[in-house]
Amino acid sequence: MPSIGRENAEAPLILTIDVGSSSVRASLFDGRAFPIRDLEVKVPYQLDTTPDGGVEKDPDQVLKLIFQAVDGLLLQAGGLASKIAGVAIDTFWHGLLGIDHKNNALTPVITWADTRSSNAAAQLKHELNEKSIHNRTGCLLHASYFPAKLRWLATTQPKVFGKVARWLSIGEYLYLKLFGETRVSVSMASGTGLLDRGKCIWDTELLECLKTSPAQLSPIGDLDTPQIGLLPEFAKRWPVLAQVKWFLPVGDGASSNLGSGCFSPDRLALMVGTSGAMRVVCEAGEVEIPVPWGLWCYRADRKRYVMGGALSEGGNLFAWMRQTLQLPAVEEVETELAQMQPAAHGLTVLPFLSGERAPGYASQARATITGLSLNTNSLDILRAGLESIAYRFGLIYELLQPILPKSAEIVASGGALLHSPTWLQIISDVLDRPVIASGEQEASSRGAALMALEQLKAFGENRGLENAEYDFGRVYQPNAAHHARYHEAMAEQRVLYQDLVKSKV
Question: Is the pTM above the cut of 0.70?
Fold first, then answer.
């Protein structure tokens, strides 16, 4: 969505906080969910990694970045900040941290990319009926989710596990520091793997198995129960935000869908940022069916489901390859990539730098490149890497097709993807479907703003997100000959996956 000048901004304004895997961003949107020009502060950061598969971050460091971003935005906004009516927050799903009875963090935020709990997930599969768990929670027993993380912590760090008073996400930890209490939205709760998604309550069987009390998890709320009244420290720091509505954090995947205009099955969202995902939003009554095996089903809020599959790799694979292979600037790489023929390098790649999520959920899998020869160059490897991720999206798309109307459009978002026309074309060719580039440069932030404005009735009584404006860009049309070659290459990736990953499961 094109930004507008502050002189054209219409009340009520929404301040958004987007906590992603590589940056924290604070932005300001007007009452039509238009981003206001030059009113955004982005603070980049990196997750900490360990040799044994850990991917984590000190939660207090993340909060400092959030506070820094909000400070900077309010300074930029000046007098316009007095028109802020609410604060909307989206954060990455699946991040787990434990706090003590004094509300201090005992653990880092253990993120979705952390694979140290893979063995714990395997143990739980032997103890529980995974298909029943999948149907109830919409999640599989995988290292991404809380059940495996909790079992792993109980086994490897029993003293820390025993001291934890409550388990939180980073958004809940933020609320705890701002308000002295916390709740969790059904959106964030649904991404834990511990929520009965139909009843919107914590799953009793899982909690008993994990020796975790419901009292150790936050009470469940939704966007219709915002918090008002910052604690004195923050009321003094941000007086214009002290008495506005702070909406519960939602999962960034859900907000990204809504922010890119994908709020119904008629539009399928395909996002590549640090990681990747393909998702569809449905009204809750439309998806009271078993979730297809290999996919997950979370909630955007009490009235909307989000179904799809996520990849641990996306822009992070692009960045890793560029750095490791010592490739030139992105613009120069893009030009050369565009001149290469599809799958002409003779390489097959499994892109699992952080283990596999959808559709096979083999968290122990690791990245593999086969077919290297003396004729292989760095651009061949990079192109093969981008194509490999497109093939993984192809597998997710196959699983989603039964619940999609035939006319469903595919809308692409995420900085890593929107900055690479070549990658967009590759994905269109692999899927054999037109792919529409989203015009929303920051879909997650805009989606959070839209959800807050919906609660404030900014679009009118009983009128929803369909009444907002959405911006769409170039349409990438599939090339039939390229699709045929990619179909063959995708089959080669399946064979490699079966030989190196599936055979070991």
Answer: yes
* pLDDT at residue 287 greater than cutoff 50: no
Q: How confident is the model at residue 493 (pLDDT cuts 50, 70, 90)?
A: very high
**Is domain 6-252 in CATH 3.30.420.40, yes or no?**
yes
Task: Please check whether residue 48 is in contact with residue 56, taking contact to mean a CB–CB distance below 8 angstroms.
Answer: yes
State the Cα–Cα distance between residues 488 and 483, nearest whole angstrom.
9
User: From 3.30.420.40, 3.20.20.80, 3.40.50.11060, 3.30.460.10, which CATH number describes the 262-439+471-505 domain?
Assistant: 3.30.420.40
Taking alpha carbons only, the member of 2, 8, 9 closest to residue 28 is 9
E-strand ranges in 61-219 read 84-91, 97-99, 109-110, 166-168, 184-185, 195-196, 201-202
Would you give the distance in Å from CA 145 to the centre of its chain? Answer: 13
335-359 tens-digit pLDDT: 999 999 999 999 999 999 988 999 9
Report how far residue 89's alpha carbon sits from residue 93's, in angstroms, rounded to the nearest whole number.
12
Residue 1, pLDDT > 90, answer no
Here the tokens at position 426 are 């590759």
3-state DSSP of 118-161: HHHHHHHHHHCCHHHHHHHHCCCCCCCCHHHHHHHHHHHCHHHH
Residues in the chain: 505
